[in-house]
TrEMBL record:
Keywords: Kinase, NAD, NADP, Transferase. The lineage of its organism: Eukaryota, Metazoa, Ecdysozoa, Arthropoda, Hexapoda. This is NAD(+) kinase. InterPro entries: ATP-NAD_kinase_N (IPR017438), ATP-NAD_kinase_PpnK-typ_C (IPR017437), NAD/diacylglycerol_kinase_sf (IPR016064), NADK (IPR002504). Belongs to the NAD kinase family. The keyword Kinase applies. One of its GO terms (biological process) is NADP+ biosynthetic process. Its EC number is 2.7.1.23. It is an enzyme of class 2 (transferase). It comes from Drosophila kikkawai (Fruit fly).
Length: 458
């Protein structure tokens, strides 16, 4: 598979920053993209009101836009500082600079469509025909797609049916066979793509042809222009982190010491048979039992708390706008490295959702005092029972899902919040000028008269 890589975006976009923050930004400038510092200096001389001069010659200076937080200073007061050690040396790529490029032109594309939806059939045929005829690409589809009765009645599809390469979920391994993924439908198609690729995932371009479409930013109207642009390497990426979940059954041989010595990246690169990567969340609930769940939660081997309630949601930032949002959690931008832990109807008013660093390992087990077992599901699939003595280990995987942006990471996310969830939608409050009639009216006005004035209509 032609491996896509990320390239820095030194587009010169800048914003003002106070001189006081210059020291804190020093680390960012040292690791900035080539030309970023020079671009900031040029902006400082040409920006209105700065009057020219060097980079620090004014009370305001300009730096390149970044989604990373400023690098913190290493010294605290006259005596304190962070102790230096090799573990603190790391490189963090700015999410705003994540853009797609290809080592070589992509040749194979997997098309995933929403099942049992007749409205997707026409776009599916149109897309596949265009990829085959215009782009000369090898098109893969799931074998179940060819069993669709309505699709097989389409004259245009009959002409290209034998040109498609098929696979069967659970039998065929697609690793290193697919260069590019196109999803037609709703958010479920993207979750299915994540399930198919349990290690490295090809870039995913998702078209909104489903119900909610929170993870599908593209519209199908001009798919030819949009696909051509992506295939030429003109695309921003959102790297959506996934959770690596490992079930450990009671009685299985434990390798605690070996796991602690092993590099987490190596462990993720060689997944065990009972591990699975999830894009949204892993849910632990009480299942059909009438009793409360009683689940013990550990973080990096340390006991944190016991969850008594209907269950627990462990989600990625992508999953924070799914089940976790319905359970009262905050919504986290997918570029934030974090894991969210959200209780489901906890039997405690003080048990609020928490966010922990992405590098920790969570261990979840049924409490010895629990009256019942628990049930676990992964992105709504593979539901299985968690017995006493079993444990579930969850940490962030090194294999994210690279989702192609329609605009950029910020615009796409807030557009999804507005369109999919109607986030913060309400009638606008009228300004005082529009209420002048109310202030001019006397105290003799009745409530009925005020309602007749329709003051609250937009």
């Amino acid at each position: 598979m032609p491996t896509p890589v990320l390239r820095d975006n030194s587009d010169g976009q800048t914003f003002p920053c106070s001189e006081k923050d210059a020291v804190a930004e020093e680390g960012n400038l040292l690791h900035a993209a080539p030309g970023a510092v020079e671009g900031a200096a040029a902006a400082s001389t040409s920006a209105p009101g700065l009057g020219g001069g060097d980079l620090m010659g004014s009370s305001w200076w300009w730096r390149t836009r970044s989604l990373n937080a400023p690098s913190p200073v290493q010294q605290f007061g006259p005596c304190g500082r962070i102790m230096k050690n090799s573990a603190m040396v790391m490189q963090i790529q700015d999410p705003a600079s994540q853009r797609l490029t290809w080592y070589k032109p992509p040749l194979t594309v997997l098309v995933i469509k929403k099942v049992s939806d007749a409205s997707v059939l026409a776009p599916f045929v149109q897309l596949v025909d265009w990829l085959l005829q215009e782009k000369n690409m090898v098109v893969w589809v799931e074998s179940a797609v060819l069993e669709d009765t309505l699709l097989n009645e389409d004259v245009r599809f009959k002409a290209i049916r034998n040109m498609l390469v098929t696979f069967k979920d659970g039998r065929d391994d697609l690793t290193d066979r697919i260069d590019f993924i196109v999803c037609l439908g709703g958010d479920g198609t993207l979750l299915y793509a994540s399930l198919l690729f349990q290690q490295s995932v090809p870039p995913v371009m998702a078209f909104h042809l489903g119900s909610l479409g929170f993870l599908t930013p593209f519209r199908f109207d001009n798919f030819q222009e949009q696909l051509t642009s992506v295939l030429e390497g003109h695309a921003a990426l959102t790297l959506r982190s996934r959770l690596r979940c490992v079930m450990q059954r009671k009685g299985e041989r434990k390798h605690e010491s070996k796991t602690q010595e092993q590099d987490p990246a190596d462990a993720d690169a060689r997944p065990v048979a009972n591990s699975i990567l999830v894009l949204n969340e892993v849910v632990i609930d009480r299942g059909p039992s009438p009793y409360l769940s009683n689940i013990d939660l550990f973080l990096d081997g340390k006991y944190i708390t016991s969850v008594q309630g209907d269950g627990l949601i462990v989600s990625t930032p992508t999953g924070s706008t799914a089940y976790a949002a319905a359970a009262g959690a905050s919504m986290i931008h997918p570029s934030v490295p974090a894991i969210m832990v959200t209780p489901i109807c906890p039997h405690s008013l003080s048990f609020r959702p928490i966010v922990v660093p992405a590098g920790v390992e969570l261990k979840i087990s049924v409490s010895p005092e629990s009256r019942n077992t628990s049930w676990v599901s992964f992105d709504g699939r593979n539901r299985q029972e968690l017995f006493h003595g079993d444990s579930l280990r969850v940490t962030t995987s090194i294999y994210p899902v690279p989702c192609i942006c329609a605009q950029d990471q910020i615009s796409d996310w807030f557009a999804s919040l507005a369109d999919g969830l109607h986030w913060n939608v309400r009638k606008r409050q009228k300004c005082l000028d529009e209420l002048s009639d109310l202030t001019a009216s006397g105290s003799e006005d009745t409530l009925d008269e005020i309602e007749n004035m329709k003051l609250y209509d937009v």
